[in-house]
Every structure is written in C-alpha cells, then in structure tokens.
Amino acid sequence: MQISKRLKSIRQSMGISQRELAELCGCSSSFISQIELRQTSPSLDSLARICEGLGMNVIQFLSKKAEDINALVVREYEPRQFLCTWESASIEFLMPAEAAAALTVLRLRVQPKGKTALRGARRSMHEIGHVVQGKCSLRLADKSVRLAAGDTVRLDLSTPHQWINTGDSLLEVILINPNFTDVFDITTVPDAVA
Predict the structure, then answer these.
(1) Band of the pLDDT at 98, cuts 50, 70, 90?
(2) CA–CA separation, 39 and 57 (whole Å)
(3) How many CB atoms sit inside 10 A of residue 62's CB?
(4) CA pair distance 93, 91, nearest whole angstrom
(5) Longest pairwise C-alpha distance within the chain
(6) Quick one: which of 192, 187, 87 has its CA closest to 140?
(7) Would you put residue 65 in left (φ > 0), alpha (ψ -120 to 50) or beta?
(8) DSSP letter string over 6-70?
(9) Is the Cβ–Cβ distance between 193 and 113 less than 8 Å?
(10) Which of 20, 94, 141, 147 is most buried, judged by most C-beta within 10 A?
(11) CA separation for the pair 161, 84 (Å, rounded)
C-alpha cells in the first residue's frame, strides 16, 4: 500500500484540504503535500498524528478493508462500536469507525429521564441531530431547545451541549457530523454555562 495514495484518498473522501488536515494534526500543509507527492515518508509518530487528525488510528489507516468496499451495508443486528456510554445514555457508530467517509453517522439513545454528560469540542464543527423517537431538551450553553420525534436541529459542537430525555420512553437521535476526535465530556461547568 502506498501511504501517499491512501492519505490523499481518505483526505479527499472527507472533503478536507491539505491545509485543514495540517491544522488538525499540527503539521505544515507542505508536509502533507510532500507525503501525497511521495517526496517524503512520514515517521510513525507523524503518521499517528495525521491519523488522529483524520479521526482514525494507524491500523485503520493501513487497513485496505475500508477502501475495498464500494457499498457498505451494516445490518441492524450486527454489533456496533460505542463512542460514548454514560449511566443512562450511549452514542454508537451506525457505520464502522474505520470506514473513511466525509461524515460520521451516530445513534444517540437516552433512557427515560436520563441524560448525556455535558459535552463540547475543541474547535467549531457542526452536527445535525434528527429525533427519531421520544422527546427531549437539548441544552446549549445557557439555553434549552425542546425537541420531539421528527424534529431536526443543527448545532455547533464547540458550544457546551447536553441531551436530556424529558419523556417516559426511549429517546433516539441520529447524529451526523464530520469525522472528529476532539469532542469531550465537560467535567466542570464552563463560565459560559454558569
């Protein structure tokens, strides 16, 4: 496998420029260009940082599995990889995490009267949430938005946010966002939310 072709293919499938990838992985855009043009080879540490910027690990990057599939079907009964789990909520990948694509498709499930942790991202990125079933309150910094089955919302993940099931049945939300690795649980309430 040629790392140069693999990197270019994944980067282009995600719809990001060399400069955007360089910013995500903390290197120069000329370095990314040199790799793609086969003028240099990245060290293992550099490759790991690039893979992190792409939202995958080195093994996923080097795997031909994702690039050999033209149409990927994941059946409902197949096991899913969980991204986050809390006491009464979970987020799971609907498509395998190693499937290189421009978008990540996730399913959020929150038990009745349950909630996710307060979450935020280190950089601005948008997410679309479509409520499949149930009703909820979406906390966005110091505001809340009420949503019910059939509603769709767009939010910036850098805004502290939390999904709260306000109903008596399971809340299920489909989340679509760019591949990313820098969304995290906020353990202390930031000043903007206080």
Answers:
(1) low
(2) 23
(3) 14
(4) 7
(5) 59
(6) 192
(7) alpha
(8) HHHHHHHHTT--HHHHHHHHTS-HHHHHHHHTTS----HHHHHHHHHHHTS-HHHHH-STTTT-S
(9) no
(10) 147
(11) 15
pLDDT confidence tier of residue 10, bands split at 50, 70 and 90: confident
- Site of tokens 């979450």: 119
Q: Tokens 């009420």, residue? A: 146
CA distance 45 to 104: 25
Least confident of 7-16, 147-156, 162-171: 7-16
Distance in angstroms (rounded) separating the CA atoms of residues 127 and 104: 10
Strand order in the sheet with 82-85: 82-85, 89-93, 104-110, 171-177, 126-133, 152-156
Task: Give me the DSSP letters along 94-154.
Answer: SS-TTS--S-EEEEEEE-TT-BPPPEEESS--EEEEEEEESEEEEEETTEEEEEETT-EEE
Output the six-digit token pair for 51.
Answer: 């893979």
pLDDT > 90? residue 134: yes
> CA nearest 107: which of 192, 154, 5, 175?
175
Residue 116 token pair: 């996710």
pTM of the model: 0.61
Confidence of residue 155 (pLDDT cuts 50, 70, 90): very high
